[in-house]
Design brief:
With about 80 residues, the chain is α+β, with helices and mostly antiparallel strands. The protein is about 30% helix and about 15% strand.
Length: about 80
Amino acid sequence: MKRETEMDERGRIVIPSDIRDELKLRPDQKLRIETRDRNEIVLRLEPDLEKFITELKGCVSGSKIKPEKLKEIWGVEHSHH
């Protein structure tokens, strides 16, 4: 889905409501921002560490690799609580 939006004087960009709804974005949700090819800005949903760990518990039972290490291996940043 392609949409147009504008940046305000403070650098803020509004994500259109239909896109927020489609992606189930919520206020204060963390997003990762990256640049690509010097003319693109990419926004990605920042994974929720607690949800990620919960979803992995059944997948990795008996594994010696902790869920936090899997995120590191997969290149997903997380904060330690």
